[in-house]
Amino acid sequence: MNWSVFGKAFLCETVYAIPFFILSILPFKKQLRFPIKILILFIFIGQLLQSSLYTYLISHGKPTRVTDTVFALVSLAIYFLCVKANFWKLLFLGDFILNYFVTVRGICFFLESRLFYDPSITYYSLRDESLLLISILLLLTLPLGLKFMKNATERVFQVDSSAFWQKVWFIPFSCTLIICAYNFDLNIDTVRKFRFILTRLWLFAMTILIYYVLLEALNAVRQQAQLEERAAQQDTLLAMQYTQYQQLSRHIEEVREARHDLRQHLNLIEHYLQSGKTEDLKAYIEQYRMTLPPDTARTWCENYAVNTVISYYGEEARKASVDFSVRIQLPPSLPLREPELCSIFGNLLENAYTAAAHALPGNRSITVRLAVHGNMLVITIDNGFDGNVNKKRDHYLSTKVSHTGYGLRSIRHICDT
Predict the structure, then answer these.
(1) In this predicted model, what pLDDT tens digit does every residue of 90-123 receive, in sequence order?
(2) DSSP characters for 194-249?
(3) What is the DSSP letter of 33?
(4) Could you give the angle at the alpha carbon of 81 between the alpha carbons of 76 and 87, nearest 5°?
(5) pLDDT tens, 271-298?
(6) Alpha helix ranges (H) inside 116-193
(7) Angle, nearest 10°, between helix axes 3-25 and 87-115?
(8) CA 294 to CA 285: how far, in whole Å?
(9) How far is CA 33 from CA 25, 42, 80, 149, 416, in A?
(10) What residues does 327 pair with on adjacent strands?
(11) Residue 8's closest CA among 127, 121, 116?
C-alpha cells in the first residue's frame, strides 16, 4: 500500500468528516444512541475504509469519483446509526447536509481550476491547494450551516406526521440527484466554466428555498394546530365552569328546600323529646340523614383554574363511581399562566378519568397530588386502568375514538418551553 497516498487521503477525508458530523450530530447531542467515544470510533473506522478505497483506486489507475458516493453512504450510515430519532426526519435533514457539501466541493474545485490550473487536476484532488481551499470554505460557511441545521431540526421535530415525512424528504433529495447526475463525470475543462458553478449555486439556492418554504408551512400548520387546541381548551373550560355552576345551583336549591323543611323537622324532634321517645328520635334522625344529598360542592384550592378542572372531573368521577382523592398544597400564585395550567392539568385528568372509568370494579380510582417545591410545580396522578397500554415507539396512543393522542405531546411541549 502507498502509505503516502493513504495518509493524504485520510487527512482529506478528515477535513470533510469533521464538519459533516458537526452538522449532523451536534443538533442531536441529547439523542445519541452511543457515547461520544463510540461515535468517534465509528467515524475513525469509516475514514480508514474510505482512505483504503481511494488508495486502491489510485494504485490501480481507476477513477476516484466513486469515493464521493462512498463518503456520502458511510457518513449517512453513521448518522442514522448514532442518532435516535425518526428515520424520515433524519433523512430530510441529511439531504441539506449532502447538498451543502456537494456545493462547497463544487466551489472548491472551480476555484482550484481557476487559480491553480493544471490539466492533470482530478476532481478528487489531494493537492495542498485543494485541501487549503476546502478548509477555508468550510470554516467560513460551517457556522451558517450549523445555525440553519439547529433551526431546521427544532422545527422539523415539532411536527409528528410519519406519512408526511416519508414523502417530503424526496423534494430536497431531488436537488442532490440533479447535481450528481448532471456533474458526475467531471474534468478540468468542465469545472472551469461559469456554467458549472452557477448550476451548483442555483440548485443549492433552490434547496435553501425548498427548506425555507417547507419549514414556514410547517410552522403555520403548527400554529394553526395550537390555535385549535387553545379553542378546544376554552370550550372544555367553559364546559367545566358550566358543570360547576350546575353543581352550585343544585346545592343552593337543596339548601333552600332544607331550610323550608327545617321547621317541620324541628317540630317533630321537639315532640319526640317532650314525649321521651329517644329511640324513635334516633331512628328518625338516622332516616333523615340518609335522605341528605352528598356534599359535592366544595372548593379544592384557591387557584380558580385548578379548582375548576378538579371540580369538573371530580363530578364526572362521582357519576362513574370512580374513587376521587385529591391533596393540594399550592401558593396563591403559580409560575404557569392559567391557559397553560388548564392544558397540562386538564389533559392529565382527562386521561386519568378515561382510564379509570374503563377499569375493572375495585380498580376505579384517581389520586391527585399537587405541590410546589422550589420553583417547580409537581403534579402526580395515579389511576386505575384496564391493563392495556397503546404505545408506538416513544408515543402513547389515544384510546378515545376520533382522538389523535396529542394530549401528552402538548404537555411535553409546554414543559419544554
Answers:
(1) 999 998 888 888 888 888 888 877 787 666 665 5
(2) HHHHHHHHHHHHHHHHHHHHHHHHHHHHHHHHHHHHHHHHHHHHHHHHHHHHHHHH
(3) S
(4) 75
(5) 778 888 788 778 878 887 776 655 555 6
(6) 128-156, 162-168, 170-182, 188-191
(7) 130
(8) 16
(9) 11, 12, 10, 20, 21
(10) 369
(11) 127
Question: What are the residues whose beta carbons fall under 8 Å from the beta carbon of 364, sequence distance 6 or more?
Answer: 320, 321, 322, 323, 356, 357, 384
pLDDT in tens, 18-62: 889 999 999 998 889 999 899 999 989 988 888 888 888 877 777
At residue 175, what is the residue type?
C
Rounded distance between C-alpha atoms, residue 122 and residue 124, angstroms: 5
| Helix, coil or strand: residue 276 | coil
- Residues contacting 137, CB < 8 A, separation 6+: 104, 107, 108
Query: Cα(71)–Cα(50) distance, rounded to whole angstroms?
Result: 7
> How far is residue 360's CA from residue 358's CA, in Å, rounded to a whole number?
7
Determine the 3-state secondary structure of 287 from DSSP.
helix
Determine the longest span between alpha carbons in the chain, in angstroms: 127
Q: For cell 416519508, what's the residue?
A: 166
Cα 340 to Cα 310: distance, rounded to the nearest angstrom: 15
Q: Look-up: residue for cell 397530588?
A: 369
Instruction: Measure the CA–CA gap between 16 and 131, rounded to whole angstroms.
Output: 10
